[in-house]
Write a structure and sequence with these properties.
single chain, about 375 residues, alpha/beta, TIM Barrel, 2 domains, 8-stranded parallel β-barrel, 14 strands, binds phosphoenolpyruvate, binds manganese (II) ion
Amino acid sequence: MLFICRAVDEDAVRERIHARVPTPHGAVVCRVGDRLLVHVPDGRSVAAEVLHDSGLVQQVLDDHSDAPLTDRAAAPLGSLVRLGGQATVGGVDFALIAGPCAVESAEQMAASARLAKDGGAVALRGGAYKPRSSVYSFQGLGEEGLRIMAEAGRAAGLPVVTEVLDPATVDLVAEHADVLQVGTRNAQNFSLLKAVGRAGRPVLLKRGFGCTVGEWLQAAEYVLAAGNPDVVLCERGIRTFEPATRFTLDLGAVAVVKHRSHLPVIVDPSHGVGHRHLVKPMALAAAAAGADGLLVDIHPDPAAALCDADQALDRERWFDLAGAVRDVLTGLGRGLAISQPEPATGPATGPATGPAPEPAGRAR
Ligand code: PEP
Ligand code: MN
Protein backbone atom coordinates (compact mmCIF):
# COMPACT_ATOMS: atom_id res chain seq x y z
CA MET A 1 0.00 0.00 0.00
CA LEU A 2 1.36 3.41 -0.93
CA PHE A 3 0.57 6.43 1.21
CA ILE A 4 1.14 9.85 -0.29
CA CYS A 5 1.81 12.61 2.19
CA ARG A 6 3.15 16.12 1.88
CA ALA A 7 6.92 16.47 1.97
CA VAL A 8 6.58 19.29 4.51
CA ASP A 9 5.10 16.76 6.93
CA GLU A 10 8.10 14.45 6.60
CA ASP A 11 9.27 14.75 10.21
CA ALA A 12 5.79 14.16 11.58
CA VAL A 13 5.23 11.16 9.32
CA ARG A 14 8.59 9.60 10.16
CA GLU A 15 8.05 10.18 13.84
CA ARG A 16 4.69 8.46 13.74
CA ILE A 17 5.99 5.47 11.85
CA HIS A 18 9.23 5.03 13.72
CA ALA A 19 7.62 5.40 17.11
CA ARG A 20 5.35 2.49 16.42
CA VAL A 21 6.87 0.26 13.80
CA PRO A 22 10.14 -1.60 14.19
CA THR A 23 12.29 -1.75 11.05
CA PRO A 24 12.87 -3.62 8.83
CA HIS A 25 9.25 -4.74 8.79
CA GLY A 26 8.00 -1.20 8.75
CA ALA A 27 7.50 1.33 6.07
CA VAL A 28 9.83 2.64 3.39
CA VAL A 29 9.86 6.42 3.07
CA CYS A 30 11.03 8.33 0.01
CA ARG A 31 10.62 12.00 -0.82
CA VAL A 32 9.84 12.72 -4.47
CA GLY A 33 9.56 16.44 -5.17
CA ASP A 34 6.92 17.88 -2.84
CA ARG A 35 5.51 14.43 -2.08
CA LEU A 36 6.43 12.01 0.62
CA LEU A 37 5.87 8.45 -0.50
CA VAL A 38 5.44 5.85 2.20
CA HIS A 39 5.26 2.28 1.08
CA VAL A 40 3.98 -0.33 3.48
CA PRO A 41 4.51 -3.81 2.06
CA ASP A 42 1.64 -5.30 3.98
CA GLY A 43 -1.31 -2.95 3.88
CA ARG A 44 -2.75 -4.36 7.06
CA SER A 45 0.38 -3.78 9.11
CA VAL A 46 0.71 -1.55 12.12
CA ALA A 47 2.38 1.12 9.98
CA ALA A 48 -0.68 1.33 7.78
CA GLU A 49 -2.97 1.70 10.75
CA VAL A 50 -0.77 4.34 12.32
CA LEU A 51 -0.68 6.34 9.13
CA HIS A 52 -4.37 5.96 8.43
CA ASP A 53 -5.14 7.47 11.81
CA SER A 54 -2.60 10.27 11.59
CA GLY A 55 -4.49 12.71 9.40
CA LEU A 56 -1.22 13.22 7.49
CA VAL A 57 -2.13 11.12 4.47
CA GLN A 58 -3.33 12.83 1.31
CA GLN A 59 -3.91 9.79 -0.84
CA VAL A 60 -3.72 6.01 -0.52
CA LEU A 61 -2.91 3.81 -3.51
CA ASP A 62 -3.40 0.09 -3.46
CA ASP A 63 -0.43 -1.99 -4.48
CA HIS A 64 -0.85 -2.63 -8.15
CA SER A 65 2.85 -2.62 -8.95
CA ASP A 66 5.90 -4.47 -7.72
CA ALA A 67 7.84 -1.20 -7.95
CA PRO A 68 5.37 1.18 -6.31
CA LEU A 69 7.77 4.01 -5.52
CA THR A 70 8.77 4.29 -9.18
CA ASP A 71 5.19 4.04 -10.41
CA ARG A 72 3.82 7.00 -12.31
CA ALA A 73 0.77 7.00 -10.06
CA ALA A 74 3.07 7.99 -7.19
CA ALA A 75 4.09 11.23 -8.96
CA PRO A 76 1.88 11.68 -12.01
CA LEU A 77 3.62 14.86 -13.19
CA GLY A 78 6.96 13.08 -13.44
CA SER A 79 10.05 13.69 -11.40
CA LEU A 80 12.96 15.98 -12.05
CA VAL A 81 16.44 14.81 -11.16
CA ARG A 82 19.16 17.34 -10.48
CA LEU A 83 22.52 16.10 -11.70
CA GLY A 84 24.60 18.83 -10.10
CA GLY A 85 24.76 22.59 -10.52
CA GLN A 86 21.77 23.66 -12.55
CA ALA A 87 21.68 20.53 -14.74
CA THR A 88 18.47 18.55 -14.47
CA VAL A 89 16.88 15.62 -16.29
CA GLY A 90 13.17 15.02 -16.58
CA GLY A 91 11.69 18.40 -17.29
CA VAL A 92 10.55 19.69 -20.62
CA ASP A 93 14.14 20.19 -21.77
CA PHE A 94 16.21 17.39 -23.21
CA ALA A 95 19.56 16.71 -21.52
CA LEU A 96 22.70 15.78 -23.43
CA ILE A 97 25.34 13.96 -21.40
CA ALA A 98 28.53 13.24 -23.30
CA GLY A 99 32.12 12.16 -22.83
CA PRO A 100 34.50 9.35 -23.56
CA CYS A 101 33.84 5.76 -22.59
CA ALA A 102 36.89 5.79 -20.33
CA VAL A 103 38.99 8.38 -18.56
CA GLU A 104 42.43 7.94 -20.16
CA SER A 105 44.47 10.98 -19.15
CA ALA A 106 44.09 14.54 -17.87
CA GLU A 107 44.64 15.90 -21.38
CA GLN A 108 42.08 13.59 -22.96
CA MET A 109 39.51 14.43 -20.29
CA ALA A 110 40.08 18.18 -20.52
CA ALA A 111 39.64 18.02 -24.30
CA SER A 112 36.59 15.80 -23.90
CA ALA A 113 35.01 18.18 -21.41
CA ARG A 114 35.47 21.06 -23.84
CA LEU A 115 34.02 19.01 -26.63
CA ALA A 116 31.04 17.95 -24.54
CA LYS A 117 30.38 21.50 -23.42
CA ASP A 118 30.82 23.03 -26.88
CA GLY A 119 28.31 20.58 -28.32
CA GLY A 120 25.73 21.51 -25.69
CA ALA A 121 26.11 18.77 -23.06
CA VAL A 122 24.90 19.59 -19.55
CA ALA A 123 27.02 16.86 -17.95
CA LEU A 124 30.26 15.02 -18.63
CA ARG A 125 30.49 11.23 -18.68
CA GLY A 126 33.53 8.96 -18.43
CA GLY A 127 34.49 5.75 -16.71
CA ALA A 128 37.29 5.48 -14.17
CA TYR A 129 36.30 1.92 -13.29
CA LYS A 130 35.49 -0.01 -16.46
CA PRO A 131 33.49 -3.23 -16.51
CA ARG A 132 35.28 -5.04 -19.34
CA SER A 133 34.34 -8.43 -20.70
CA SER A 134 38.02 -9.32 -21.00
CA VAL A 135 40.29 -9.04 -18.02
CA TYR A 136 43.06 -8.11 -20.47
CA SER A 137 41.22 -4.98 -21.69
CA PHE A 138 41.88 -1.54 -20.22
CA GLN A 139 40.25 -1.55 -16.80
CA GLY A 140 40.26 2.20 -16.17
CA LEU A 141 42.47 4.49 -14.10
CA GLY A 142 40.54 3.95 -10.89
CA GLU A 143 40.93 6.61 -8.21
CA GLU A 144 43.30 8.67 -10.35
CA GLY A 145 40.65 8.65 -13.06
CA LEU A 146 38.08 9.96 -10.60
CA ARG A 147 40.33 12.91 -9.76
CA ILE A 148 41.03 13.64 -13.41
CA MET A 149 37.35 13.48 -14.23
CA ALA A 150 36.33 15.74 -11.36
CA GLU A 151 38.91 18.33 -12.38
CA ALA A 152 37.84 18.25 -16.04
CA GLY A 153 34.21 18.68 -15.06
CA ARG A 154 35.01 21.47 -12.65
CA ALA A 155 37.05 23.35 -15.25
CA ALA A 156 34.28 23.10 -17.83
CA GLY A 157 31.50 23.79 -15.34
CA LEU A 158 29.88 20.40 -15.96
CA PRO A 159 28.71 17.86 -13.37
CA VAL A 160 30.32 14.47 -13.89
CA VAL A 161 28.72 11.05 -14.30
CA THR A 162 30.85 7.99 -13.68
CA GLU A 163 30.31 4.31 -13.10
CA VAL A 164 30.65 2.62 -9.74
CA LEU A 165 31.35 -1.10 -9.97
CA ASP A 166 30.98 -2.36 -6.43
CA PRO A 167 29.62 -1.40 -3.01
CA ALA A 168 33.14 -1.05 -1.60
CA THR A 169 33.95 1.94 -3.80
CA VAL A 170 30.61 3.77 -3.62
CA ASP A 171 31.81 6.30 -1.04
CA LEU A 172 35.03 6.97 -2.92
CA VAL A 173 33.24 7.49 -6.23
CA ALA A 174 30.60 9.64 -4.53
CA GLU A 175 33.38 11.86 -3.17
CA HIS A 176 34.48 12.76 -6.69
CA ALA A 177 31.42 12.36 -8.88
CA ASP A 178 28.13 14.22 -9.09
CA VAL A 179 26.20 11.24 -10.46
CA LEU A 180 26.78 7.53 -9.83
CA GLN A 181 26.27 5.30 -12.85
CA VAL A 182 25.25 1.69 -12.38
CA GLY A 183 26.13 -0.19 -15.53
CA THR A 184 24.18 -2.79 -17.44
CA ARG A 185 26.22 -5.64 -15.95
CA ASN A 186 25.42 -4.48 -12.43
CA ALA A 187 21.80 -3.55 -13.00
CA GLN A 188 20.64 -6.31 -10.69
CA ASN A 189 23.50 -6.16 -8.22
CA PHE A 190 21.18 -5.56 -5.31
CA SER A 191 23.95 -4.84 -2.79
CA LEU A 192 25.24 -2.11 -5.10
CA LEU A 193 21.76 -0.71 -5.65
CA LYS A 194 21.23 -0.46 -1.90
CA ALA A 195 24.63 1.17 -1.46
CA VAL A 196 24.05 3.83 -4.14
CA GLY A 197 20.63 4.39 -2.60
CA ARG A 198 22.38 5.53 0.57
CA ALA A 199 25.18 7.50 -1.09
CA GLY A 200 23.46 10.86 -1.32
CA ARG A 201 24.10 11.23 -5.05
CA PRO A 202 21.80 10.93 -8.05
CA VAL A 203 22.00 7.57 -9.78
CA LEU A 204 22.05 6.85 -13.50
CA LEU A 205 20.72 3.31 -13.75
CA LYS A 206 21.37 1.47 -16.99
CA ARG A 207 18.97 -1.24 -18.02
CA GLY A 208 20.45 -4.68 -17.65
CA PHE A 209 20.85 -6.11 -21.15
CA GLY A 210 18.94 -9.18 -20.03
CA CYS A 211 16.31 -7.35 -18.00
CA THR A 212 12.67 -6.76 -18.76
CA VAL A 213 11.28 -3.29 -18.19
CA GLY A 214 9.63 -4.62 -15.04
CA GLU A 215 12.94 -5.91 -13.66
CA TRP A 216 14.60 -2.60 -14.53
CA LEU A 217 11.97 -0.68 -12.57
CA GLN A 218 12.32 -3.09 -9.66
CA ALA A 219 16.06 -2.39 -9.71
CA ALA A 220 15.28 1.34 -9.53
CA GLU A 221 12.91 0.60 -6.66
CA TYR A 222 15.89 -0.64 -4.63
CA VAL A 223 17.45 2.81 -4.87
CA LEU A 224 14.24 4.65 -4.00
CA ALA A 225 13.50 2.26 -1.15
CA ALA A 226 16.87 3.24 0.33
CA GLY A 227 15.55 6.80 0.41
CA ASN A 228 17.11 8.14 -2.79
CA PRO A 229 14.51 9.40 -5.31
CA ASP A 230 17.09 10.76 -7.76
CA VAL A 231 17.23 8.00 -10.32
CA VAL A 232 17.64 8.53 -14.05
CA LEU A 233 16.89 5.39 -16.05
CA CYS A 234 19.01 4.72 -19.13
CA GLU A 235 18.02 2.39 -21.97
CA ARG A 236 21.23 1.10 -23.55
CA GLY A 237 20.16 -1.90 -25.57
CA ILE A 238 19.25 -5.47 -24.77
CA ARG A 239 20.70 -8.74 -25.99
CA THR A 240 18.78 -10.29 -28.87
CA PHE A 241 19.60 -12.65 -31.74
CA GLU A 242 20.56 -9.67 -33.94
CA PRO A 243 24.32 -9.19 -34.39
CA ALA A 244 24.19 -6.24 -36.83
CA THR A 245 24.19 -3.88 -33.89
CA ARG A 246 26.14 -4.44 -30.68
CA PHE A 247 22.89 -4.71 -28.72
CA THR A 248 19.28 -4.03 -29.72
CA LEU A 249 18.28 -0.56 -28.62
CA ASP A 250 14.78 -0.96 -27.25
CA LEU A 251 13.11 2.38 -27.84
CA GLY A 252 9.73 0.81 -27.20
CA ALA A 253 10.90 0.55 -23.61
CA VAL A 254 11.27 4.32 -23.47
CA ALA A 255 7.60 4.82 -24.27
CA VAL A 256 6.65 2.07 -21.80
CA VAL A 257 8.73 3.57 -19.01
CA LYS A 258 7.37 7.07 -19.61
CA HIS A 259 3.92 5.58 -19.24
CA ARG A 260 4.63 3.38 -16.24
CA SER A 261 7.06 5.43 -14.20
CA HIS A 262 7.61 9.00 -13.07
CA LEU A 263 11.37 8.59 -13.35
CA PRO A 264 13.19 10.30 -16.21
CA VAL A 265 14.56 7.99 -18.89
CA ILE A 266 17.47 8.72 -21.18
CA VAL A 267 18.95 6.68 -24.01
CA ASP A 268 22.53 5.59 -24.67
CA PRO A 269 22.59 5.01 -28.43
CA SER A 270 26.38 4.53 -28.40
CA HIS A 271 26.48 1.29 -26.42
CA GLY A 272 23.22 0.24 -28.00
CA VAL A 273 24.48 0.20 -31.58
CA GLY A 274 28.24 0.03 -31.16
CA HIS A 275 29.07 1.69 -34.51
CA ARG A 276 29.46 5.45 -34.84
CA HIS A 277 27.54 5.77 -38.10
CA LEU A 278 24.44 4.34 -36.39
CA VAL A 279 24.53 6.56 -33.32
CA LYS A 280 22.89 9.63 -34.84
CA PRO A 281 19.79 7.94 -36.30
CA MET A 282 19.09 6.19 -33.00
CA ALA A 283 19.70 9.40 -31.07
CA LEU A 284 17.07 11.12 -33.21
CA ALA A 285 14.69 8.22 -32.75
CA ALA A 286 15.22 8.37 -28.99
CA ALA A 287 14.31 12.05 -28.95
CA ALA A 288 11.22 11.33 -31.04
CA ALA A 289 10.26 8.45 -28.74
CA GLY A 290 9.99 10.80 -25.78
CA ALA A 291 13.28 10.24 -23.98
CA ASP A 292 14.46 12.87 -21.53
CA GLY A 293 18.00 12.95 -22.81
CA LEU A 294 20.95 11.07 -24.26
CA LEU A 295 24.20 9.60 -23.00
CA VAL A 296 26.66 9.77 -25.88
CA ASP A 297 30.22 8.50 -26.28
CA ILE A 298 32.45 11.21 -27.75
CA HIS A 299 36.23 11.41 -27.96
CA PRO A 300 38.70 14.07 -29.10
CA ASP A 301 40.50 11.36 -31.10
CA PRO A 302 38.20 8.34 -31.51
CA ALA A 303 40.81 6.22 -33.29
CA ALA A 304 43.01 6.44 -30.21
CA ALA A 305 40.25 5.62 -27.69
CA LEU A 306 41.25 2.88 -25.24
CA CYS A 307 37.67 1.69 -24.89
CA ASP A 308 34.78 1.36 -27.36
CA ALA A 309 36.61 3.27 -30.11
CA ASP A 310 34.17 2.14 -32.82
CA GLN A 311 31.23 3.96 -31.30
CA ALA A 312 32.89 7.21 -30.21
CA LEU A 313 31.92 10.34 -32.11
CA ASP A 314 34.49 12.91 -33.13
CA ARG A 315 33.82 16.62 -32.90
CA GLU A 316 32.12 16.91 -36.24
CA ARG A 317 29.77 13.95 -35.76
CA TRP A 318 28.95 15.05 -32.22
CA PHE A 319 28.03 18.58 -33.28
CA ASP A 320 26.04 17.18 -36.17
CA LEU A 321 24.13 14.86 -33.82
CA ALA A 322 23.41 17.61 -31.31
CA GLY A 323 22.13 19.96 -33.99
CA ALA A 324 19.90 17.30 -35.52
CA VAL A 325 18.50 16.32 -32.11
CA ARG A 326 17.71 19.96 -31.50
CA ASP A 327 15.78 20.08 -34.78
CA VAL A 328 13.74 16.99 -33.85
CA LEU A 329 12.97 18.48 -30.46
CA THR A 330 11.86 21.74 -32.03
CA GLY A 331 9.32 19.80 -34.03
CA LEU A 332 8.03 18.33 -30.78
CA GLY A 333 7.81 21.67 -29.00
CA ARG A 334 10.80 20.84 -26.83
CA GLY A 335 14.37 22.04 -26.64
CA LEU A 336 17.81 21.11 -25.45
CA ALA A 337 18.66 21.83 -21.83
CA ILE A 338 21.24 24.56 -21.76
CA SER A 339 24.48 24.14 -19.89
CA GLN A 340 25.61 26.77 -17.47
CA PRO A 341 28.26 29.37 -18.16
CA GLU A 342 31.79 28.33 -17.28
CA PRO A 343 33.05 29.12 -13.81
CA ALA A 344 35.00 32.34 -13.40
CA THR A 345 38.30 30.46 -13.13
CA GLY A 346 37.89 29.28 -16.73
CA PRO A 347 38.86 26.02 -18.34
CA ALA A 348 42.04 24.16 -17.50
CA THR A 349 43.04 23.89 -21.15
CA GLY A 350 43.29 26.25 -24.07
CA PRO A 351 40.51 26.76 -26.55
CA ALA A 352 39.26 23.71 -28.39
CA THR A 353 40.70 23.17 -31.84
CA GLY A 354 39.11 22.03 -35.07
CA PRO A 355 35.93 23.15 -36.77
CA ALA A 356 33.50 24.92 -34.48
CA PRO A 357 29.94 24.61 -35.65
CA GLU A 358 27.29 26.59 -33.88
CA PRO A 359 27.09 25.37 -30.27
CA ALA A 360 24.12 23.09 -30.30
CA GLY A 361 22.90 23.67 -26.78
CA ARG A 362 22.91 27.41 -26.75
CA ALA A 363 20.82 28.24 -29.74
CA ARG A 364 17.54 28.14 -27.88
C1 PEP B 1 29.38 2.83 -20.12
O1 PEP B 1 28.45 3.65 -20.20
O2 PEP B 1 30.57 3.15 -20.13
C2 PEP B 1 29.07 1.40 -20.04
C3 PEP B 1 29.98 0.51 -19.70
O3 PEP B 1 27.80 1.14 -20.37
P1 PEP B 1 26.94 -0.22 -20.20
O4 PEP B 1 26.96 -0.54 -18.75
O5 PEP B 1 25.62 0.19 -20.73
O6 PEP B 1 27.62 -1.26 -21.05
MN1 MN C 1 31.77 1.85 -23.19
